[in-house]
Specification:
The complex is a heterodimer of chains A (299) and B (213). Chain A has twelve helices and no strands. The chains are: A mainly alpha (299), B mainly alpha (213).
Chain lengths: 299, 213
Amino acid sequence: MHAALHLLLALALAPLVPGIVNRVKARVGGRAGKPLLQTYFDLAKLVRKGVVISETASWVVWAGPIVSLAAVACGLLLLPGPGTPAPVAFGGDFLLLAYLLGLSRLALVLAALDTGSSFEGMGASREAVFSALAEPVLFLCFLSLCAGSGGLSLSTMLALPSPGPVTAERLFVPVILFVLLLVENCRIPVDDPNTHLELTMIHEVMVLDHSGPDLAAVVYGAALKLWIFCALTALTLTPASGLSPLAAWGVFGGLMLVVAVAVGLVESAMARLRLLRVPRLLGWAGALVALSLVLSVWR
Amino acid sequence: MELYQSVMVALLCVNLALLAVTRLRTLTRITAVQGALLALVPLLSATPGAAGHMLPLSLAVLAIKGIGFPWLLARTLSRLEVNPVVEPYLGFNLSLLAGVSGLLFSLWLETRLPFPPGLFPPLLFPAALTTIFTGLTLVVARQKALTQVIGYLAAENGIFLLGTPLSGQGSVWLELSVLLDVFVAVFVMGIAIHHISKTFDSIDVGRFCTLRD
């Protein structure tokens, strides 16, 4: 029951997360900002519109957003709630989650390449490079959680026992997951989701040729992906035992809000990194999570 | 013991940071953090009765490694007017990889060496050996003489860390004398770098290969 609740919450509330991030950015910048529900309004508007596809493009262009959205939605099935196992849980399901996210990205990259525009090809290339660098770090994060918990399923590795001390190296994992959230969801300092400058864009440039319901699928898929990473970060900090189910959901909701606000604050306080410095950021994150993994294994 | 382990993990993070930073000024600040963390180690590893005995050593380490050396390095840096970027022979990501490999090797070595049981508290030996490796990596993988001084300091910090559990009642004076030696060494190095800079307009040690009579 709780597992299904998380799934429904994610599907319903995911577009709220970008709204919170944008609202925080606007408030820090001294502006009123868009409404919190702006992503819902955008999605409703896009679904009602027609689709325009270039004559040079093939079926890959319209299949890309659908496959991407479906893959991310399937990934949600593997995500546990606070203190409750995921609807689908088995040993090694973290591999499936990582590859579902990879499949989602691949579908968008192929759709971008299929448009035949060199501009979109450039964005696809950047997205592929950064995600290729981020993926080992994500795996190291999962392995570190495995080593700390002794379980090979996301549902067991994200269950943090509340009694007993939290070791110092375990605290690295939420930090690195937060960095991965910024990288994988193309947020500042890796990519600026609001920019339309050709020299800097990564994710946005890939979806310039999509319109109508296709673009809605891309936007909704991006919101679901942001939810997954926020939830992973929040779940590593949510105590699974020692709390009533209602309190655990309350703590989880509060942490989700904290993560969303933190993304907004980072985007307000930091400038975009130069493209060449992003691999260094990921290298730093990889070294820290490797340290965490090594210490978890050796203890 | 929890705080002690956290300090060890923090020291390991500082080692990785030393290998990853790109600005000389940040490097001197991280050296100060390493010195301050190092000052905590004798206090935290002392038995309850010997804590008062270890206090002078901790204070001396804090004064020399946490405040004195970083201040000296920062002063040298500001007087040299060098390019504030660390110039590496070995890239930053490869340096980080070397740091993690050093940690793995240290953890493996700890299981192979026949230490008396209970001599080294958990994580102390790997942290110390990784600090030494980090220092050596900084010495050989960076171009500027200043970064090499910092590498030398880091290596010395690792040796100090290794010596902490061995320091019994009477060896505080030995440690203090080592600290004094290092202080003199860094002082001499600071002067040497200043003279190199004045004579050759650069502290890039790679250029020494092309020196002519």
